[in-house]
Amino acid sequence: MEERARPRVVLGVGGGIAAYKACELLRRFVESGHEVRAVPTDSALHFVGEATWSALSGRPATTEVWEHVEDVPHVRIGQTADLVVVAPATADLLAKAAHGLADDLLTNTLLTARCPVVFAPAMHTEMWEHPATRENVATLRRRGAVVIEPAVGRLTGVDTGKGRLPEPGEIYELCRRVLARGPEAAEPDLAGRHVVVSAGGTREPLDPVRYLGNRSSGKQGYALARTAAARGARVTLVAANSVLPDPAGVDVVHAGTAVQLREAVLKAAADADAVVMAAAVADFRPAVYAEGKIKKEGDREPEPVALTRNPDILAELAGTRARPGQLVVGFAAETHNVLANGRAKLARKGCDLLVVNEVGERKTFGSAENEAVILAADGGETPVPYGPKEALADTLWDLVVRRIPKG
């Protein structure tokens, strides 16, 4: 890869214990071909030394505006960047960025950057929930920065709560989506919006051992959630039986059965601008749940399994609309007469958009790629060629953004 063609990433590192995780984030950027400049704060160097940042990036890591002044680093680093990501972003750093303070190289870089900027906060729960921090975050988001939600988990000491830095691999994936959108990402078009995405496949228990399920891995729904977060949305992901890692900056609610998924989706949808039902929800469940494992009895054939209908979550969402202007998107997995069945389902369910794709044992389910046609209630038809599921996600969010009422 030619030097000039390599995306230029500035990795700002704040002074928090999570600074050690930024080493892994830096390594991922470098190994994927990005040109990375690490800009730690003085406080960050108390946790991870300058030699580590320089060795991992292959470039000098400095904190002072007074070093190499002939290159005007306090201006040039931000001017030439394709992406600035700050991880961890401490409460202090968020406050300085929101108020335009520039007392070191990183805060100067944030003022001169005209590229997309991503903040990955990490701090104790009380600090994250403090009104001052919330106002600073709102200010940064209003100006176009992507401030991802921290994860919930173990903090320093014995404390647990919201404020943990998301896993480096997931921060990297979000940043990769931001970079893929190019200059458009400098103005996140889903900022200020709450979107709900369902993903995975429901499982309907037959007995304590067995269940009725499907082949859905959740990859498309997770791609939708990750892409929406990269475009600035507040995202709630209702995940059914997926083993995928939680996307950075996304609130994840886990569900097992169709009834549980319905409850979680309806609750999250109460204030949502858009709901995307990408999960493979079982149409039926066993009418009777066996309290003990169903055993073979000699040569006798097993009793037939009676089924009962599950709630139609998509039709319910489209029919009730929790708030005016709420957009509802469905998915249709078809094995034959794909478009004809898709159009019939779109009319029957009453949703605004329907993603129709052909599925099978070696198609779509479990794959990193997808191919689909997005049908619109107004008659529109948008084909999405075979490619990464993130590409389909971006196309779908483009259509959603055009249809969400302004304001």
From TrEMBL:
Q: Where is this region: Phosphopantothenate--cysteine ligase?
A: 195-407
Cofactor binding mode, per the note?
Answer: Binds 1 FMN per subunit.
Molecular function as annotated in GO:
FMN binding; metal ion binding; phosphopantothenate--cysteine ligase activity; phosphopantothenoylcysteine decarboxylase activity
Q: Which Pfam families match?
A: DFP, Flavoprotein
Q: Which reaction does it catalyse?
A: N-[(R)-4-phosphopantothenoyl]-L-cysteine + H(+) = (R)-4'-phosphopantetheine + CO2; (R)-4'-phosphopantothenate + L-cysteine + CTP = N-[(R)-4-phosphopantothenoyl]-L-cysteine + CMP + diphosphate + H(+)
Q: Which residues form a coiled coil?
A: none
The record lists CTP as bound by: D283, K293, P311, D312, I313, L314, F331, K345, K349
Domain spans labelled Flavoprotein: 8-175
Q: Does the keyword Metal-binding apply?
A: yes
Instruction: Name what cofactor the protein needs.
Output: Mg(2+); FMN
**Per the UniProt entry, what is one GO biological process?**
pantothenate catabolic process
| Record-linked InterPro entries | CoaB-like_sf (IPR035929), CoaBC (IPR005252), DNA/pantothenate-metab_flavo_C (IPR007085), Flavin_trans-like (IPR036551), Flavoprotein (IPR003382)
Per the UniProt entry, the Enzyme Commission number(s) are 4.1.1.36, 6.3.2.5
Please list where the region (Phosphopantothenoylcysteine decarboxylase) is annotated. Answer: 1-194
Identify the metabolic or biological route this protein is part of.
Cofactor biosynthesis; coenzyme A biosynthesis; CoA from (R)-pantothenate: step 3/5; Cofactor biosynthesis; coenzyme A biosynthesis; CoA from (R)-pantothenate: step 2/5
Task: Outline what the protein does.
Answer: Catalyzes two steps in the biosynthesis of coenzyme A. In the first step cysteine is conjugated to 4'-phosphopantothenate to form 4-phosphopantothenoylcysteine, in the latter compound is decarboxylated to form 4'-phosphopantotheine.
- What is the protein named? Coenzyme A biosynthesis bifunctional protein CoaBC
Q: What gene name does this entry carry?
A: coaBC
